[in-house]
Amino acid sequence: MKQVCLISTVNHNVGDDFVRTGILWLLKAVLGDLGTTVIHKHFPATARGAFWQQVHGLTHGLKNRFDWRGRLSRAVDLLPFNAARDQVLSCDLLVQSGAPMYWKNRWSSCARTEWFTPLVEKRWRQISQHVPLLNLGAGSCQAWGSDGSEIVSDPDCRSFVDVFTRWSSVTTVRDRLAQSIVRQCGHEVPLLPCPSIFAPGALNIQGRPGEYIALNYMPQGGHYDLAGQGAGARRKWEDVFCKMARGLSRRQACLLICHDREEERQAGRLLPEIPRFYSGDWREYLQAYSRCSSAVVNRVHGAVVAAVMGKQVLLTGNDTRLLMAAEIPGVTVLPVQEAWDSLDELVADLLRMPAREQPEAFIGIARERYLGLLSPILSA
Fold first, then answer.
1. pTM for the complete prediction?
2. Is-same-fold flag (2-200+363-379; 207-357)?
């Protein structure tokens, strides 16, 4: 049985669970039964095995002032490796599991990502002669409207993109900006839908008749204020979304799907009259999206899985992760700034759209393209 090690997150982001499930579904189609381990990329010490995975579990969710978890992880990595227990050194295949790979903002950049040096440079390079490295579903994460030039013009970022692409046996990107960035760094890589499109099928979850409109709210329309618009834009989006949601819920059943505790808290504070959904089991999110009639969301992976289960989706956001969902049939993408004056009208248009079937042909074509890339590498 092949042992696959995935660089992802653990109990952190429902979207990462969707992506990881889709990737494993593809790998099993080529390799059959797999043994799998997951390294929490924000705490790379979890590569050292069960004890450090327990440490991650106990400290997950605690305030991380002064990056004490990162400091701890880096200190632990100064200790000698135990190759038999280390999840990277003992694997047969290492996979970067679909996430923003190419970014540069005021406080961070892809060249300084916390997992690349400890997991890829220090570990995988020791076993690179016989263990493939895959970079699947890589995306961009820049302020909406970026052309990627701030990344390509940065020598450190450009070097990261070049090295990671050269070292990977297969790289696929999930949005057109990511493809353009990699191309400008000297490599041509295929644009394929995010592997999260396969998650519902991997668990045999089908779209059902709609019971409610799925809503999802993030305080600034996305994870970060990458454009530096400040508190005014945050309040504006809060007002616009809440006005739309209140009006909609008076006419139709709605459910606020909250991907984490903070979203649940914000939803309860702003829209207490609308039922809320939160779960510690990521699989239940697929079930929740399968039962909606349509969706108005900020979470890109919520948009993706709802669309591949046949729902009409309006996705609003403030960064280039929107471009990932733009590749999926059934998703209408709208930057938050453009939604300020038109959200009610666009939601009305969404609700008038005819019902959709699940895009089986789209999913099938994407699956064949992925397997066409993976089979020659993994079969060898």
1. 0.95
2. yes
Candidates 282, 174, 155, 264; CA nearest to 218 is 264
Beta bridge partners of 336: none
Distance CA 9, CA 13 (A): 7
**Topology classification of domain 207-357:** Rossmann fold (3.40.50)
CA-to-CA separations, 90 to 3, 5, 34, in angstroms, rounded? 8, 9, 14
Report d(CA 157, CA 92) in Å as an integer. 28
Q: Angle, to 10 degrees, between the axis of helix 155-167 and the axis of helix 176-184?
A: 100
> Can you tell me the mean pLDDT for 212-228?
87
The mean pLDDT value for 4-29 works out to: 95
Residue ranges per domain, the chain?
2-200+363-379, 207-357
Structure-token match 């309006």, residue found:
314
User: DSSP string spanning 28-67?
Assistant: HHHH-SEEEEEEETTSGGGGG-HHHHHHHHHHTTS--GGG
Fold of 2-200+363-379: Rossmann fold (3.40.50)
